[in-house]
């Protein structure tokens, strides 16, 4: 990026992946690199910043999305998606540099781990993907109504959507909701389509009587099969991290 112009500006966007890809299009087409990138809802204004709002353009973002897969690789697109879900503060700048270099270098960009921002992107992707994979096994649905199931999670990264896709594929005709209590958002699925809503005013019904019975049976089974002499909390926390225990039905 030796021929790029580095500007003392803070680029603001709407916090979505399409908004970020619109920003990538803007930077790549003008060959400019901002000092900072920040989602609008997390931006704290200060007198040293010169904020510039980048409007989300779905046509431009789609061109970037398609271009990543076509001109770099599907692996890069996959990496970009999961890295974007990371809770790292500097994820946008690292991803911007990663993608702009990727359009120049091609698929080999993923092998240049000695470059700091590429290594950070790979690390962000690994953490987000790993947490999503872990929660596929730890998420617990509870019946809260007639053919409606609810689950709560407290993830570090914003992996609600890819996590929900896993359960949509496994339970395509089931009505369910997954509540990300860390970000206070909820994904609702009605057996046909899904949407993510703000859960600030969300009221969760009590679990059904049938669910209560099954939970008691499960807790009884969980305690019965446990061998007190072989209890290993350290090993248990390795596979079932303590930070997720509040969302589990059983008591580890």
C-alpha-based Rg, rounded: 22 Å
| Average pLDDT reading | 92
What summary fits the major beta sheet? 5 strands, mixed
Question: Between the first and last Cα atoms, what is the distance in angstroms?
Answer: 51 Å
Report strand order across the widest sheet. Answer: 6-7-8-9-10
Q: Helix and strand string, N-terminal first?
A: EEHEEEHHHHEEHEEEHH
Shape: elongated
Structural class by helix and strand composition: alpha/beta
Low-confidence stretches: none
Number of strands: 10
Strand content: 15-25%
Q: Helix tally?
A: 8
Helix content: 40-55%
Summed up, what is this model?
With 252 residues, this protein is α/β, with parallel strands linked by helices. It has helices spanning 17-30, 58-72, 74-84, 91-105, 116-138, 160-170, 209-225, 233-239; strands at 5-6, 10-13, 32-33, 36-39, 51-53, 142-145, 148-153, 175-180, 185-189, 194-198.
Question: Would you kindly provide a written description of the structure presented here, covering whatever features stand out?
Answer:
The longest helix has 23 residues, at 116-138. The radius of gyration is 22 Å and the shape is elongated. It has 8 helices and 10 strands. Helix content is 45%, strand content 16%. It has helices at 17-30, 58-72, 74-84, 91-105, 116-138, 160-170, 209-225, 233-239, and strands at 5-6, 10-13, 32-33, 36-39, 51-53, 142-145, 148-153, 175-180, 185-189, 194-198. It has 252 residues and is of the alpha/beta class.
């Amino acid at each position: 990026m030796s021929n790029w112009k580095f500007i003392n500006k803070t680029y603001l966007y709407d916090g979505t992946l399409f908004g970020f890809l619109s920003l990538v299009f803007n930077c790549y087409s003008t060959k400019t690199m901002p000092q900072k990138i920040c989602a609008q809802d997390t931006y704290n204004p200060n007198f040293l910043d010169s904020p510039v709002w980048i409007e989300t353009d779905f046509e431009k973002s789609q061109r970037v999305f398609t271009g990543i897969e076509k001109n770099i690789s599907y692996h890069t697109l996959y990496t970009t998606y999961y890295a974007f879900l990371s809770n790292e503060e500097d994820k946008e700048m690292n991803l911007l540099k990663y993608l702009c270099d990727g359009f120049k270098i091609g698929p080999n960009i993923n092998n240049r781990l000695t470059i700091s921002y590429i290594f950070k992107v790979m690390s962000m992707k690994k953490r987000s993907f790993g947490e999503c994979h872990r929660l596929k096994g730890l998420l617990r649905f509870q019946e809260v109504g007639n053919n409606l199931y609810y689950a709560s999670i407290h993830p570090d990264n914003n992996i609600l959507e890819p996590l929900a896709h896993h359960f949509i594929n496994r339970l395509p005709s089931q009505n369910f909701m997954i509540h990300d209590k860390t970000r206070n958002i909820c994904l609702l699925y009605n057996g046909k389509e899904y949407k993510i809503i703000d859960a600030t005013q969300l009221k969760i019904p009590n679990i059904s009587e049938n669910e209560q019975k099954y939970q008691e049976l499960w807790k009884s089974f969980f305690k019965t099969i446990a061998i007190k002499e072989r209890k290993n909390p350290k090993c248990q926390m390795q596979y079932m991290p303590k930070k997720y225990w509040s969302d589990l039905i059983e008591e580890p």
